[in-house]
Specification:
The chain is an all-beta fold. About 0% of the residues lie in helices and about 60% in strands. It is built from no helices and eleven strands. Strand 9 and strand 10 form a beta hairpin. The radius of gyration is 14 Å and the shape is globular.
């Protein structure tokens, strides 16, 4: 198991910035990729950004050019820098660890952190 603790959410005005952090502990060596998802009320959970073991990053079209995912291996922490925030970015943001466990893919999740963007 990988334990994930998110922090950094809050309320911000449109155009502002926030940085989310996700601290990982436990079976970190099994992790293949770290991801940020979000879920707004009434919507399905959607993938926002991902960073692979090799450092490759991918982003949802809706956040490209505004969000940046990065990691600090020494601190076992992944970050999501969110700039030029829009009201439609309002959601609970979840950190995800995608890993190999007993020969199959498995996911661990953090508890989520609320991001609210006012217009």
């Amino acid at each position: 198991q990988v334990q994930l603790v998110e922090s950094g959410g809050g309320l911000v005005q449109a155009g502002g910035s926030l940085r989310l952090s996700c601290a990982a502990s436990g079976s970190i060596s099994l992790i293949n990729a770290m991801r940020w998802y979000r879920q707004a009320p009434g919507n399905q959970r959607e993938l926002v950004a991902s960073i692979s073991l090799g450092g490759s990053t991918t982003y949802a079209d809706s956040v490209k050019g505004r969000f940046t995912i990065s990691r600090d291996n020494a601190r076992n922490t992944v970050y999501l820098q969110m700039n030029s925030l829009k009201p439609e970015d309002t959601a609970i943001y979840y950190c995800n660890a995608h890993k190999i466990s007993s020969g199959s893919w498995d996911d661990d999740w953090g508890q989520g952190t609320q991001v609210s963007v006012s217009s």
